[in-house]
Amino acid sequence: MYPCDVAKDEDIARVYEQVGKDFWETALFYCTQWLFAPKEALEGQFLDTTREAFRVAHDVSAYSLVAMGGAEGGRR
Predict the structure, then answer these.
(1) In angstroms, how far is CA 65 from the centroid of its own chain?
(2) C-alpha of 55 from chain center
(3) 40/53 Cα distance (integer angstroms)
């Protein structure tokens, strides 16, 4: 297991580098979805979600797909 905070570009780069060293010269792997929301956004009613909690959840959950693809070298 490789711990990775997908909100940190340096963590993503570190994981790709480590997997490449541990398994093969060029690691190609992909995670289909990373989901995250602040704890307070997971409690209570959906319509009570704050703008900031939504922004954080959207940023991490959506942008991590872009960041993980870029780290893998998927710019084609």
Answers:
(1) 6
(2) 15
(3) 8
